[in-house]
Amino acid sequence: MINRRRRIAVVGGGVAGLGAAWALRESADVVVYDNAPRFGGHAWTVDIDHTGVRMPVDIGFICFNRPNYPNFTQLLQHLDVKTVWTDMSFAVTDPNGYEWSSDPWGLFAWKRNALDPKFRGLLKEIIAFNKVARAQLAANDVPDMSLGAWLDLHGYSELFRRSYLMPMSAAIWSTPEQMMPDYPVHSFLQFFDNHRLMHLVRPIWRTVEGGSRSYVEKLTAALGSSLRPSAHIETIRPAGPGKVQIIERNKPAQVFDAVIMACHADASRSMLDQSYDEQRLALGSVKFSQNTAYLHHDASLMPRRKMAWGSWNVLKGPDDRVCVSYWMNRLQKLPKSRQVFVTLNPVHEPAKDKTFGVYEFDHPMYDGPSAAARRAVQRIQGRDGLFFAGAWLGDGFHEAGLRTGLEAAFALGGSVPWEATTQHTHTLAHAPFNRSSLSPVPIAAHMAAQ
């Protein structure tokens, strides 16, 4: 008896989808759909011409470190993608507070900081926060509450929140600062500890040489004809015992043994047929924020004092709006003779004659209901032949995207040439076929109506 290779669809061509497809390429017939004309998701490199000098600039995913990105590190090594050292210095500019950076020379970039007892108090509070948080994590004694409630419980000052913790957190998660107090405190502190943000010795950060597209191009080359860019999926629905059907605009319906939804939760929900009621219910509570990124060279969206410039720069506007400017020359080792910045949600738009492009991104948000929704999604992985993957299922970062993609692929017989780091084990479980769950409209009629 000949064993038929599974036919598997991957919906989403970011790191989760490409990673899953790459792991399945030897054991299954894989088709990768993405609604964009390019693959990579947040791994997006843009070429700019800056006064006659061509530069490749990453506008989404920028950097990683080896301890916290084990699968991604191994993937790059196996793809023979070169990386270079970078740094993750951090700076804050607050018109009603202080201007400082985490660099030794930037801590007192504003000379009055050295003499200001409030600023010295802020530094002491940062040290105290690090000590208390690490102790609670070590004792497994972090309460089940929000970050804001935990800060209230321990009496942290408004200055500590406004000039340190909230802007740093908003920059890390690309989330509006006012939403950060809702973040579950245990996950928050665990992330800070894992990334050694509460330690003096921090990991070495790296960036992909030539931009993140270098690894995307290696993955897409390996997948070849399996890729379907600019795909417009109308519906994903059951198609009989152990089958899932994808209906794409103006194209014949395709039937698969399983589908990996490697896109954002809201995008997945919008494509799933109403008969997938459990999946749709779980996905509905996962929230995302829309963010606008400007690629530019307008230094007015950087700290006023150049000594205070860091790799990541949080600027507060007079109306308490917050933006993050990434100094790409420092992050990606670009020529410093021509400054390049990526600013997320700027407090004011950069000058038009200094702007290279404007781009939209969605980033996951984290609060109690969203955390519960993520747990619910994990419980139904593989049900009805559907798997879900993406950074939103983890901490929102590139490693979480790759890890969840690999976990889905492993459940379907995929493999990678290294010992993968995983958190969940999934199984494929098709529900008994119930014809009453399908729309009575024949497929041909459905397609004709588009």
Outline the secondary-structure elements.
Blueprint: E1 6-11, H1 15-24, E2 28-33, E3 45-50, E4 53-58, E5 63-65, H2 70-79, E6 83-86, E7 90-93, E8 99-101, H3 117-138, H4 147-154, H5 158-173, H6 185-194, E9 205-208, H7 213-223, E10 227-228, E11 233-238, E12 244-248, E13 254-256, E14 258-261, H8 265-271, H9 277-283, E15 288-296, E16 312-316, E17 322-327, H10 328-332, E18 341-344, E19 355-364, H11 368-379, E20 386-388, H12 398-411, H13 443-448
Parallel strand pairs: 1-2, 1-14, 2-10, 7-16, 14-20
Antiparallel strand pairs: 3-4, 5-9, 6-9, 7-8, 11-12, 12-13, 15-18, 15-19, 16-17, 17-18
Main structural class? alpha/beta
Average pLDDT works out at 88
Shape: globular
Q: Please provide the count of β strands.
A: 20
Lateral arrangement of strands in the main beta sheet: 8-7-16-17-18-15-19
* Spans of at least 5 consecutive residues with low confidence: 433-450
CATH class group of the largest domain: Alpha Beta
Task: Report the radius of gyration as a whole number of Å.
Answer: 23 Å
Give the helix level as a range of percent. Answer: 25-40%
Count structural domains.
2
How far apart are the first and last residues' alpha carbons, in Å?
41 Å
Q: What is the strand content?
A: 15-25%
Major sheet size, sense and barrel closure: 7 strands, mixed
Q: Could you name the CATH topology of the largest domain?
A: Polyamine Oxidase, Chain A, domain 2
- Label the CATH architecture of the largest domain: Alpha-Beta Complex
Q: Please count the helical segments.
A: 13
